[in-house]
């Protein structure tokens, strides 16, 4: 199991939620994902996050990535270890997304499902260039090849931190490791949420649906419901 997740306690009206999908094998992906989770948890509890939430996310993820990279330098057996990170920081009635790699954040709002993050992957680049469609990407042989991840040189790492967005009544945010959307299309995810959005076990249903659809990777799903 190389996925890790973080769901902090509410602190001063804020909560941090994300999933980290480790890569590297032999337990090293597990090390990378847990290192990032632990670093963010400690930083969230020690820093005045609300002063500048976007800066907190940017600074913290770079320092967490530095710890993973330092380990790979100290111990050559960890050379290829790394992790994705995808999630969100809730600050009152607003939220900020963060993403590195190909895990994702989705938003369910007013019966519409939208991706809140942009994959750092080979197939996403092809989609952006108009060379393949979303449907073609779902079956593409390079669909699991990332273009950015924690663990690579910091000068090469791409970090996406979203601007503040305001929640609407009834909004639901999701953080998924790629095991969910590797097995389920966005239309299938939409159908699952539409059918079970009011159930307390929605996250579990999504994970089971992904496994039933043939998912073989670790699969993690976190559901955050906004109540105004």
Distance between the termini: 35 Å
Radius of gyration: 17 Å
Unreliable stretches: none
The biggest beta sheet reads: 7 strands, antiparallel
> What order do the SSEs take from the amino end to the carboxyl end, as H and E?
EEHHEEEEEHHEEEHHHE
Gross morphology: globular
User: How many DSSP helices?
Assistant: 7
Beta content comes to 15-25%
Count of strand segments? 11
Which whole number gives the mean pLDDT? 94
Fraction in helix:
25-40%
Class from secondary-structure proportions: alpha+beta
How would you portray this structure in words?
With 228 residues, this protein is an alpha+beta fold. 36% of the residues lie in helices and 24% in strands. The chain has 7 helices and 11 strands. The chain has helices spanning 28-46, 53-74, 122-128, 134-138, 178-183, 186-196, 202-212, and strands at residues 3-7, 14-23, 82-83, 85-91, 94-100, 104-109, 112-115, 160-161, 165-166, 172-176, 221-225. The strands form 2 sheets. Strands 1, 2, 3, 4, 5, 8 and 9 form a 7-stranded antiparallel beta sheet that branches. It has a 4-stranded antiparallel beta sheet with strand order 7-6-10-11. A hairpin with a 6-residue loop joins strand 1 (3-7) and strand 2. The longest helix is centred in the N-terminal third of the chain and has 22 residues, at 53-74. The radius of gyration is 17 Å and the shape is globular. It starts with a strand and ends with a strand. The mean pLDDT is 94.
Topology:
Blueprint lengths: L2 E5 L6 E10 L4 H19 L6 H22 L7 E2 L1 E7 L2 E7 L3 E6 L2 E4 L6 H7 L5 H5 L21 E2 L3 E2 L5 E5 L1 H6 L2 H11 L5 H11 L8 E5 L3
Antiparallel strand pairs: 1-2, 2-3, 2-4, 4-5, 5-8, 5-9, 6-7, 6-10, 10-11
């Amino acid at each position: 199991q190389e996925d890790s997740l973080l769901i902090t306690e509410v602190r001063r009206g804020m909560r941090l939620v994300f999933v980290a999908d480790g890569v590297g094998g032999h337990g090293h992906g597990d090390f990378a994902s847990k290192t990032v989770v632990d670093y963010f948890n400690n930083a969230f509890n020690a820093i005045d996050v609300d002063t500048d939430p976007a800066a907190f996310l940017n600074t913290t993820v770079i320092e967490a990535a530095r710890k993973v990279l330092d380990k790979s330098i100290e111990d050559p057996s960890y050379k290829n270890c790394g992790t994705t990170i995808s999630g969100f920081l809730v600050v009152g009635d607003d939220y900020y997304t963060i993403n590195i790699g190909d895990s994702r954040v989705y938003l369910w709002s007013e019966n519409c499902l939208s991706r809140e993050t942009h994959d750092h992957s080979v197939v996403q680049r092809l989609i952006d260039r108009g060379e393949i469609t979303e449907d073609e990407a779902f079956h593409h042989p390079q669909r699991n090849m990332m273009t950015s991840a924690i663990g690579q040189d910091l000068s090469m790492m791409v970090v996406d931190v979203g601007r503040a967005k305001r929640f609407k009544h009834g909004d639901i945010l999701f953080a998924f490791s790629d095991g969910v959307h590797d097995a389920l299309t966005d239309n299938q995810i939409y159908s699952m949420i539409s059918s079970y959005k009011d159930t307390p076990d929605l996250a579990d249903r999504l994970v089971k649906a992904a496994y039933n659809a043939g998912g073989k990777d670790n699969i993690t799903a976190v559901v955050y419901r906004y109540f105004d």
